Amino acid sequence: MRIFLSFFLIFFTASILKAQYSPQEFANTISVEDLRKNLEFIASDSLKGRLTGSEGQRIAAHYIAGYFKENKLLPVVKTDSGNSYLQQFYCRSPYGLNYQVLYDITKIRNPKNIITSHNVLGFIEGTDKKDEILIISSHYDHIGQTKQGIVFNGADDDGSGTVAVMAIAKAFSKAKEEGKGPRRSILFLTVSGEEQGLLGSEYYTEQPVFPLVNTVCDLNIDMIGRFDPHHKKATDYVYLIGSDKLSSQLHSISETANQTYTHLNLDYSYNVENEPNQFYYRSDHYNFARKGIPIIFYFDGVHEDYHQSTDDVEKIDFNLLQKRARLVFYTAWEIANRENRPLVDSNKP
């Protein structure tokens, strides 16, 4: 009888501990209210489209940094005055066409038209696997255009991804505060310069704060607040791009997370070989993929307001944004806490 009771108590205690570590209670902190509040600021007229190097972009950077600080994420960018949330970089368009990242401005003979910009980094340190880094990324810049006083606010592109990253960071911070933090460390990376050619993510991958060899994958969110014409009758979807390009394990983790928790239609239409839009190469995850780091790109497709002045907060489907953000959270939770990092397939380039 005593042996039976002992086994029962062990099983019961293990069951309680497993329940306590369920990610759902933390996923539930990703709320419509929080997403809306942050997006109403990020995509407001006052930021004038968040063009890379503009005052609006700088205001957005400090807002995101303030949110990271409020939610107890760590600043990890070393500066002369201490650690910062902001990773500064420089770029310019020397011929008025293509922008270039500048890695050493002291060697530039003609320093005119150099643009200063920032990535924003917030860090949650892991427990027993803290040297391995999961990155969750988005770009917070937009095209910055105005026409007849109307601002191109980029609420979906990529205000939606930015506020999702912020909300996911808050959820993981809450878990850590309750003693249930991730085993692996997580870097929440919002970059600038995407619209000018993936500049901020290029800079991070060339000047990483943490060694790329220790970076297990990048979950990149670029536009998840709307639905496209192909899904008007069934909006409960998200496009996934790249999940199987480098790691079949990462693809399986993603599929299982969705089957277990969110039950979205995972649409791989843009993931096929020779897809004409070539979206795999067109957002910030690609700078990680080209370094051999597995990635997933979350995307809602191209709608009629893409890069138009009508990409406003009023058109965001916040319930859909919430559900997609929770999918990223659940996927990140599994990656951050599983025993082994997702392996790169041996047959991948």
UniProtKB/TrEMBL annotation:
Q: Does the keyword DNA-binding apply?
A: no
Write down the Pfam families for this protein, in alphabetical order. Peptidase_M28
Q: Which N-terminal stretch is annotated as signal sequence? A: 1-19
> Which molecular function GO terms apply here?
metalloexopeptidase activity
Sorted alphabetically, the keyword list is: Signal
The alphabetized list of GO BP terms reads: proteolysis
- Where do the Peptidase M28 domain residues begin and end? 119-331
**UniProt feature coiled coil, ranges:** none
Statement: the UniProt record of this protein carries the keyword Signal: yes
Q: What is this protein called?
A: Peptidase family M28
Highest classification ranks of the organism: Bacteria, Pseudomonadati, Bacteroidota, Cytophagia, Cytophagales
